[in-house]
Amino acid sequence: MKKIFQILIIVCGGLLMNSCYYDEFPEEIIVEVPDISDTVYFTADIQPIFALCTGCHTSSNTLNLTAGNSYSALVSKYVIAGDADTSILYNKLPGKNHPIQVPVSNEPSLDQLALLKAWINQGALNN
After folding, report:
1. pTM for this model (two decimals)
2. d(CA 94, CA 113)
3. Is 121 in contact with 84 (CB distance < 8 Å)?
4. Are 100 and 12 in contact (CB under 8 A)?
């Protein structure tokens, strides 16, 4: 009887320890582009988003996102005009696949992500 009780305790303990385990997969952010029929302007709509990024991406960095420099730095290497889904810029934003962990306060909002996507899909104009 004592041996059965010991086996029962071991089995219950094993079940208890394994029942608390679960896999947690990170949620992929899917941004639906709202119906933006108006033109998205780089200077007025997009450049202010990069104010979140200028803590790291300044003139001392390889990617300078300060006002006046960001358009030429981004469009030549990181943006495929008309195709946001394959543009490096859109796919490497904080909150998506940014190579460095960025504080949540510096991540663009879903509305800002939608604006960036719309701007790239509209041709990534310097307007």
Report:
1. 0.68
2. 10
3. yes
4. no
Domain ranges of the chain: 31-121
Q: How many CB atoms lie under 10 A from the CB of residue 65?
A: 22
Measured between alpha carbons, how far is 86 from 64 in angstroms, rounded to an integer? 21
**What percentage of the chain's residues is helix, strand, coil (to nearest 5)?**
45, 0, 55
Under 8 Å between Cβ of 89 and 52: no
| pLDDT tier for residue 107 given thresholds of 50, 70 and 90 | confident
Residue 80 CB contacts under 8 Å (≥ 6 apart), including other chains: 86, 87, 120
CA dihedral for 89, 91, 92, 95, sign (positive or negative): positive
